[in-house]
Each structure stands twice: as structure tokens, then as C-alpha cells.
Design goal:
Elements: H1 8-25, H2 29-52, H3 59-70, H4 80-88, H5 97-109, H6 113-129, H7 137-154, H8 162-168, H9 201-210, H10 215-236, E1 248-252, H11 258-271, E2 280-283, H12 285-288, H13 295-307, E3 311-315, H14 330-343, E4 349-354, H15 356-363, H16 367-372, E5 376-379, H17 384-397, E6 401-402, H18 404-419, H19 428-447, H20 454-458, E7 459-460, H21 462-476
Parallel strand pairs: 1-4, 1-5, 2-3, 3-4, 6-7
Helix pairs in contact: 1-2, 1-3, 1-6, 2-3, 2-4, 2-5, 2-6, 6-7, 7-8, 9-11, 13-14, 17-18, 17-19, 18-21, 19-21
Amino acid sequence: MSKDKITAEMVGEKYRTGISAFARMLGDPTLRLNFVQEADPFFRRCALAVWQHGGPVTEKHVAAYNAICSKGNRAPSILYFELCAAVASAPAFAAPGFFADLVRADAGARRKNADKFIELCSILMLLFAAVDDTVDPDEAAYVDQCTQLLQSQSGTRSDLHATDYVTKNQNPDKIQPETPQGQAAPAGDSPQEDAPPPEKLEDVLAELDELCGLEQVKKDVRSLINLVKVRRLREENGLSVPAMSLHLVFLGNPGTGKTTVARLLARIYHAIGVLSKGHLVETDRSGLVAGYVGQTAIKTQEVITRAMGGVLFIDEAYALTSQEGTNDFGKEAVEVILKNMEDHRDDLIVIVAGYTGLMNDFIHSNPGLESRFNKYFYFEDYSAEQLLSILESQCRRNSYQLSDDAREKAKKLLEEAFETRDENFGNAREVRNLFEKLVACQSDRVAALEAPTREDLMLITAEDFDAAAGEEAEEAEPEPEA
């Protein structure tokens, strides 16, 4: 048994962190919506099933179950005898409904979201198993069975084994899901994934060209590729090659495609032989900086280790040096990053991103940053026409269609949003939020139809826009004074 006791609060926090981080990672709004709707009921069933394969139910299990059900509220949702009955009658493990959608989406877009969900599922089930401060071997074996079932349905194979965790690291406090925002990876000596074969450069560039707008960024990417190619040719011909940094600064407002371009750049660098793996690890200050002396360097190094062979993307990087006070450890994280950029210059690319003015202050806060980050990509706000094009693209990609009246309403709404934008304008994120509201309102309308046709299921109407606008106005309405 570990000396480090796991608390219900820790279970609830790590559970919510894993769920929200995976949801943010899903770029497809329909997938994300389905996941958010089904995740809690699915993982609660998983908790009950895991405990069915362990020892007797204790008050620790009750506290942990209440923590994952209450979403941070203090009111209990289940009592001891109720949990005992629920554990005894827990249903057999079955893949959630959205998992098949993940697998299909991965096949069409060369993503690995299904694999990441399987990993999240395994880690959260281990977290549930550890609430009584130990992971029973029968619980670990059951987690492996569930993992294998999901893998068989997705056609993948993983080296993640819960039974290995029991023998290698019986420390439940270290069970924490890996997230796109750089949270700690699962403890233990998990083997590194084999590097995937490089993609064809023209295929990745085709994906880049499909992005709406970003014309200058696309030119900058091609110029960077040409620079690398010519350097290779000079080396092959025995010519000197001046020192060059491939690390980048992305400047622009939220929702302008910075993360998407960073992910494509990682694959491009892999395709032209600059990086051995070509994956992206996204993080921010919270994923790098700890709250106590000595922990930040360890936490930052763990994130960098995961990024080796690929791109480390640090969003809102200015937050690392903008904090005031002697107890801030952001600068320590910067020093660890700079050292690794020097030590692993041949297989690690770092991209820092954020608002233009704040990022300029960040780069000039440290001479090491100035010398290593000398290439800047500027991401302009999308125009109203481009925002409308993004909305129509999302509709097509998800088998929806705007009616003429709905398109006109969308055009006016996005023109107004663009004209009144401020520093908090979300660009494509605004469009994604709008699309998700439209889908929800369209679903409410179509569900009331007696026998909806295929066209009914696809069409988004002006009525759906009015309903979505009503929801938005209701959310924005201030609370009445007491």
C-alpha cells in the first residue's frame, strides 16, 4: 500500500480534468457534444464495475463516487447502502455509444482519438480502483479486459497494461490522465510508441491549403520548408550551413488556427525528416508550473519528454513570465525549456503562442528566448466572410445544411460579431460555439416531428437560428438583484 493516500477530492479533480481535457481535444463539435453528454454516465458505470471486482465497498468508495457525481458540489448523491447495491448489480462493461463515432472519425482523418480515449478510460478506471489506497490485482485484470475489448473494436493495440501498474508502481496519487494541456502522464515506465512512418509532404500541405484564410501563414510554412530543403542540399554538396533555429512564435488572437497549424507543422517536419515522430504535445502554464519549490523542473521535464521527436506547443506562453511575486516558478520552467531546446536541437521543436503584444514582452524577457525564437507567424482575425465559410464547412463535414434564410441570418450575425469584436473575440471558436448551439436547437425541433425525413435531419433553418439566439441572450442576461 502506498504511503500517499488518495482523497475523494483528488479523485473528483483528476476525473474532471481528464474528462474536460479530452473534450477540448476533440475538434469535431458533434463528437465533442456526444462525448460530453455520454461521458459521465459511462464512467460512473465503469467505477461501479471496477469496485465489483475489488474488495468490499467502504466509505472511501462512497466519498469518491459522490465526488465524481457532484461536479464539485458538497451535496451527496449516493449513500453507503445504495452504493453497495449499485456495485453488486453493476452492468457488464460495454463501449459507450460515441466510441464507434471516434473510430470512424479517426479512420477518415488519420487521428488517434480512439486510442487516446482508450488510454483515458484505462487510467480513470485505475483511479477508481485506487480509491481505497491500493489497486487490487483482480481490479487491474478487469481494467485490462475492458481495455482489450475497446482495442478489439477499434483495431488498435496498446502497451498500456493495468496489471503492470500494480507490480511497478503501487502509488494511486500518481494516477493522472495525460491531457492535451500538458497534465502529468501516468506513472510507471510505459514504453515509448514506435515512430509512425512519415506522411507524404503533399498530403499534409493539401490539408494546410484546405484551411480557411491564413494565406500569409501558408506562404510562411512553404518558405520554411524551402529553407530546410536548401540547407539539406547545401550539406550534401559540402557547403557550409549557417546556424538556424526552427522554433517558432505564433502571434494572434484565440481561434485563428494556431494549434491546427502547429499540428500540421509537426507532421510536415516529420515528412521532411526534421523530426522523428511528428506528434504535437500542447500545454500551457498550468501544465508546466507547479506550486512548490523543485516541482516545476520535474513537471516541465515530463512534458518535454513526451514531446521529444515532435513539437511542444505552449499556448499563452507569456503567462510563464508575466506573474508577479517571488513565489512564481514560471521562469524556472522557461530555463528548463531553453536547456532542452539546446540539448535536443535535432529532435525537438518548440512553438510558443499568444496575443501579439504579450508575446513580444515574453520573448524579450529572456536573452535565451530572443536568440532561439526568431521566426514569427502572424495569424490575422478571420473576416466575416471567412467565418461564414467556416460555419458552412462545419455543416458539410457533419452532414448538415443551412437553409437560405438560415444562411442569411448567419451572415448578418457573423458580420455584427466581426464589426464589434474586441480582444476577447474567439474567431473560429465563436463559429464552433454557434454550430453546437444550432445543432442542439435543430435536434430539439426535429425530435418533435412525427416522422422526420433525411432532409429534416440535415437542414438547419432560420427557426433554429432564432432558438440559438434566444439561448445566447438568456445566457447573457444578468442575474436579477436580490
